[in-house]
Amino acid sequence: MAWDFSTEPQFQRQLDWMRGFVRERVWPLETVLDELGPEGLERAMAPLRDEVKARDLWAAHLDPKLGGQGFGQVKLGLMHEILGTSPIAPLAFGNAAPDSGNSEILAIAGTPEQKERYLYPLLEGDLKSAFSMTEPDTAGSDPTLLKTTAVRDGEEWVINGHKWFSSNGSIADFLIVMAVTNPDARPHQRASMLIVDADTPGVNVLRDVATMEHPWESFGRYGNHAEIVYQDVRVPPDALLGAEGAGFLIAQQRLYPGRIHHCMRWLGVAKRAFDMLCERSLYRYAHGSTLSGHQTVQNWIADSAAQLQAARLMTLQAAWKMDTDGVAAARQDIALIKFYGAQVLHDVIDRAIQAHGALGYSSDLPLEAMYRFARAARIYDGPDEVHRASVARQILRGYEPPLGEVPSEHVPTRREAARRQFADLLESVTAND
Ligand SMILES: Cc1cc2nc3c(=O)[nH]c(=O)nc-3n(C[C@H](O)[C@H](O)[C@H](O)COP(=O)(O)OP(=O)(O)OC[C@H]3O[C@@H](n4cnc5c(N)ncnc54)[C@H](O)[C@@H]3O)c2cc1C
Predict the structure, then answer these.
(1) Cβ(359) to ligand 1 under 6 A?
(2) Is 386 in the pocket of ligand 1 (CB under 6 A)?
(3) C-alpha torsion sign, points 359, 361, 365, 370
(4) What pTM was computed for the model?
(5) pLDDT band at 22 (very low <50, low <70, confident <90, very high)
(6) What are the structural domains, with CATH classification, of the chain?
(7) Distance in Å, CA 188 to ligand 1 centroid
(8) Ligand 1 neighbour 255 (Cβ under 6 A)
């Protein structure tokens, strides 16, 4: 038997250190972000990063030969659960999105020259990157519909298209652009990825889109979601990342582990909200008792604990399957936890807000920001509905319609069959009556 839910002691010590470090050194920074500004935040992060590197926890998602730790997905998942408790913790650990995902793409598909020029400086924090796939005019949930094109003109590729929600696009030094390079190929072989330097003529960053998370339009803010028009953008042949037509393949290699990391980070956020829910229930007094004495609040606490535990086990099991059987084998588990985890995140934060009343709605607590963050989780990396549909499709492959359209559990039909199967026995029993 190899069922085991324990963490090896040496790694547990690393996790314990991380938990204390993130809570004591990173959480306080959250409250002075506006005063620090981007430069101040960088300065605050520098000594933290040194400590993380000294503990061998820097850029842990990468291969050891790229300066990472080569941890499997389970260990990464356990780390991300802690990092998720703060939106800025990943910055201290060298795995903040989208740079972390883009570094994985470059590690998987980049040539030695591309790694030299983009990957290593990205890992050092000397460059910033964005991933530019979603378009305002086509459904991001079905990227086979992409309209952005990259057409060969002599040696060069010429890119034309309109993208948005390219996270960090307005501060990126380079963008990884997904564009159709062969419209006549099979749907999942039409697109390729190209590396585009942000200062290439024709890369027009229009704005940082105002969102529920940052409801004011801006430009050049960290964590932005940029709208970009690519107009006759000329890039050299070596801008192609991976093989021509391999865009979807590479995207999937990046997105599957990325989803597990998201789900574990969401657990970190949800657990922080859960702690606030429990704390509030113990001191707020109304209608004859503290909130903890009211059954509805008890239900919120119990339901949240059950959902958190289920989501955690589902995520870790998906991570374990990726480590043991590979990404392809874990597809269904990853899709399951992507939509279920997003729901749990939402539900727990929602209950914590409710328990805090007006205070929960105010920005005197981090709950309202968590709530806005949670809403996006149901959309990015595939909306809930797409993952549900994918899970249902995969499950249904294991079923067949019944013969003759009678359900296979139909009792009268089964009774007839049982009577035939046990005819001798039934006859002897009735004969004895
Ligand atoms: C915070 C955030 C960050 C993002 N960062 C990036 C980034 O860095 N780079 C990037 O390229 N993109 C990014 N995106 C975009 C994201 O990937 C897309 O929003 C997502 O893929 C959905 O595409 P869409 O917005 O075009 O919605 P659509 O594809 O138009 O879908 C709209 C809705 O249609 C419904 N729907 C779709 N398909 C089905 C179906 N099969 N069955 C039932 N209902 C369905 C769903 O309810 C879905 O929400 C980001 C988005 C957000 C919110």
Answers:
(1) no
(2) yes
(3) positive
(4) 0.93
(5) very high
(6) 9-110 (1.10.540.10), 129-241 (2.40.110.10), 249-396 (1.20.140.10), 403-432 (no CATH)
(7) 18
(8) no
Q: Which atom of ligand 1 is nearest to the CA of 132?
A: 11
Buried/exposed code over 290-307 (b: 16+ C-beta within 10 A; e: otherwise): ebeebeebeebbeebeeb
Distance 297 CA to ligand 1 centre (A): 34
Query: Tokens 């949670």 sit at which residue?
Result: 374
56-106, pLDDT tens digit by residue? 998 888 877 776 778 889 999 999 999 999 999 999 998 888 888 899 899
> What is the pLDDT at residue 261?
87
The mean of the pLDDT values for the chain is 94
Distance (angstroms) between ligand 1 centre and the Cα of 379 equals 5
Q: Ligand 1 in contact with 134 (CB < 6 A)?
A: yes
CA of 422 to the centre of ligand 1 (A): 57
Run of H or E including 239: none
CB atoms within 10 A of CB 424: 8
What's 119-175 look like in SS3?
A: HHHHHHCCCCEEEECCCCCCCCCCHHHCCCEEEEECCEEEEEEEEEEEECHHHCCEE
**Lookup result for tokens 């960090």:** 168
Q: Residue 1 above 80 pLDDT?
A: no
222: which 2 tokens?
């960290």
Q: Which atom of ligand 1 is nearest to the CA of 141?
A: 29
**Tokens matching residue 170:** 């307005």
